[in-house]
Amino acid sequence: MPTVKINARDIIIQVAETNGTTWTPIGGLNSAVPNAGENEEVVDTTTFDSAGNYEQEVIQRGATLALEGFLLKDPANGAQDPGQARVEALATQVGFASVGKIRFRHPVDTQWKVWNATFSLGEHGGGNNDKYAWVATITRSGPSTTAAVSASVAEDGE
Q1: Cβ atoms of residues 68 and 133 within 8 Å
Q2: Residues contacting 7, CB < 8 A, separation 6+
Q3: Which of 54, 93, 109, 150 can pair with 97 through a Cys bridge, CB separation 3.0 to 4.6 Å?
């Protein structure tokens, strides 16, 4: 079977609720950019034996997921999109409580990428002819893990 180009807009991103087993999609997104090299640290290992060639080793790996979109609220009751609200709740926490879980994948993937992560909110708002922007950065804390995509749509929260 030939390979295909994957649409960036088809990425599925979910945040874990406080129980750690229920996953909620984050709505209203129009940009999701994983950065597998963010927070990476290297050490210079160049010596005289390197013969003038730079050498290095990676000492720390890191990653972020930058999200941008529009603030979503129910006009009848003011309730925010549940995924956005969960990210915002995590973004107010400190210490151990500031670490939550996120998972993401494309529809053709058979595995979720799962991160323990911290959550930070970016600039919100907009100008005269704009919709209200919603921005968050999710920073991986610890190693990336995977989880199988289950056969049950309800279990995956889709």
Answers
A1: yes
A2: none
A3: 93
C-alpha angle 29-109-58 in degrees, rounded to nearest 5: 85
C-alpha span between 110 and 37 (Å, rounded): 23
- Tokens 């990653």 correspond to 63
Q: Give CA–CA dist 79/72, Å, rounded.
A: 8
- Does the predicted model carry a pTM greater than 0.85? yes
pLDDT tens, residue by residue, 23-50: 999 999 999 999 999 999 999 999 999 9
The set of long-range contacts for 145-152, using a CB threshold of 8 Å and a minimum separation of 24, is: 145/113, 145/114, 145/115, 146/111, 146/112, 146/113, 146/114, 147/103, 147/111, 147/112, 147/114, 148/110, 148/111, 148/112, 149/105, 149/109, 149/110, 149/111, 149/112
Q: Are 99 and 141 in contact (CB under 8 A)?
A: yes
Which of 8, 47, 26, 6 has the alpha carbon at shortest distance from 119?
A: 26
> What's the DSSP call for residue 80?
B
CB 46 within 8 A of CB 54: yes
